[in-house]
Amino acid sequence: MSEHLRTALELAASQIPVLPLRAGKVPFGNCRRCADNACGGRPNMKNPGPCACPGPCHGWAAATTDPHVINSGPWCRAWVRASAVAYHPGGAGLTVVDLDNDDAIRWARENLPTTQIVPTTRGEHWLYLGAMQSANAVLPGVDIKSTMAYARWLGFGTGTTTALPDAVRELAVSKPDTVRPAPRAITAPAPAGGAECRHRTPAYLDRGIAMAEQRITEATTGVHSTVYRTFLAVLSTHGRCGCLTETHIARLFTAAQAKGESPRHCTDAWTNALTRLGL
Q1: What does the alpha-carbon distance between residue 256 and residue 125 come to, in Å, rounded to a whole number?
Q2: How far apart are CA 149 and CA 135, in angstroms?
């Protein structure tokens, strides 16, 4: 039994939902059954329940406390390849305040109640009892990981876990839009000749967006450049006929923010891609 699998089973026994992470600290990509959105894209924002796929296929939603699932064939193969163990804080009734640098840690010490603290490679995780919506970049160097998010398991740390304070909840509430930023509208003209746009076929466009989401999700290095190149590719194919909707754009922004991109960086990448293509 691998060390990661042993850790996962111990956490699951404590009712902490776990999932394996591959190289780059990212979830495993979709299996063949779920590739190219064949499964309907669940779970998603409208259906935030657990993953029904037999493998650890859908990021945070694949997290489980069921030892039979964790020890199943697809999961066992994933644990052999895993580089780390992750968990779903919201599923365990927890919220992680992820502090990425010394300034963020200093802010937390001055503004948040003392709680369980876990050292990370760049800063600290502050763990609180209570779940809430997750949000990236609520402050410089500060992310909130709880529902519909995952965090690396780095041990129990030190201190006693205390109740989730209103000061943390208010960070997400006061954030203007953590999931659906307002990207620049696309006003490119329709194709010449008035022919029907092939992109208006739902399956064609949805497949393109799903492939773009997967490309971003599976990025292991250079996330920002991957996001920009993916935005550029989407706009190159779908940007000149005006068929992209706010929903499509929000899906791309959501995938990018799940990888750690801030709303501002997403908007900058989108704007730069539009400018590059002259849209």
Answers
A1: 22
A2: 9
Strand partners, 20: 85
**Which phi and psi angles does 49 have, rounded to 5°?**
-80, -175
Q: Is the pTM of this model over 0.85?
A: no
Instruction: List pLDDT tens digits, range 121-172.
Output: 999 999 999 999 898 888 889 999 998 899 999 999 999 999 999 999 988 8
Rounded Cα gap, residues 243 and 232, in angstroms? 15
pLDDT in tens, 13-49: 999 999 999 888 888 877 777 776 677 655 554 455 6
Q: Which of 164, 18, 15 is nearest to 94 (CA)?
A: 164
260: left (phi over 0), alpha (psi -120 to 50) or beta: left
Which segments of 76-185 are extended strands (E)? Answer: 84-87, 94-99, 116-119, 124-129, 135-139, 142-145, 151-152, 162-163
> Burial letters for 5-40: b for 16+ Cβ neighbours within 10 Å, e otherwise?
bebbbebbeeebbbbbbbeeebbbebbeebeebebe
The radius of gyration of the chain's CA atoms, rounded to the nearest angstrom, is 20
